[in-house]
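WARN retry 2 of 3 for item q-0093 after timeout on previous attempt; input resubmitted unchanged.
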Amino acid sequence: MKKLSLYLLFAVAGWSLTACDESFNDYQQPTVFPQEDPIVIEGFEATPTAAASENIDLATLADEGLQLFTLKMGKLPEGMVIENIRLEAWPADKSESVATNVEASEDGKVTKAELVNLVYSFYGKKSTERTFTAKLFADAVKGAESVLITLGDFTLKITPEEVENPYYYVYGNATSSKKEEAYKTIMTPDPSSDVIFTYTTKFVSSGDMKVWNSKYWQEGHESGDFSMLYGSGEEKPSSYKGETGKLEQGRNASIFSPTKEYYTFTIDLESLTYRWVKLDNQNPASYSVISLIGGFNSWTGDVDMQAVDKAKHNWYAKLTLTEQTELKFRADHDWAVNWGFGGATGDWTVNDDIWAQTLSQDGGNIVVPAGTYHVYFCDITGAGHFVPADN
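OK item q-0093 returned
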């Protein structure tokens, strides 16, 4: 059980309280006056709960959160009240980090939203257990004056939930100007990571671009919910065209390609960064059309895909298969250039773990289960995607 220590800045007689502004941010700033030794006030006790020492799994945590501590209130000087109870937390492996505030209630509860914000502010969205060092504080307030109260130290272990929907899309004048078709410019997942995504084409340097999670198109498009948007976190002019930069969720700031050339654009939701890598080959082969052909149409007719970027290297089609079938991608309705699995015929396992593959020229037939799919293909990288469609 931890007893509360009260940092008092006082004159020889009575309380002399340090002023605070309306935002109660004094605890983040250096103390203006020398601090006396902490004074222990009997009756104030903060006790961590069992949940505070266990792993907090955000995937199963209810929105109302959980209780991390119990607080026994002692007697304060007349006219004082306790306000602004919060944890100041930072990663245990990043001791130099500026702490993030986690609001808590008087009964020791912290909401899921506060814990989600804590993890994402330092680590991004990889579902890995994170350890935080935290200090529990409160303000003893009288009028416009306050005194800082420290209630003890915590170690929190938090695991963020898996990304609900692993589909991300780029949209803007750098790729496509049709907002209603932005879901057709899908990013390719990195096979070594569940939080890295790429998009390759010839970008328009004067065009602005953003990244949307697929939930935006399902839920936030009409309401304009920008929490599902990723933009540039750089504090630079809107025309900034750097080759690397910070990515910020909920930021309605555009990302600009450095030049009007072929790049692979990459986002990393672990480090919350983006980068541009210029292609060595600035003259990739181009085709009039990319199509799908297979057992579903008796290998006799092509389902043409739509070019969705201005350079015509990324393609989209919506395809319904009434039964499992084998198929391939090919260029210009001819077998001279076609794409399939690198080896023999291979299954296309369609689930949240494997929904994209890098295909090879003259590869084996692709086996796709029955269903309706959003189908994507990049003829530069060979990245193909079969994303189950809701309708």
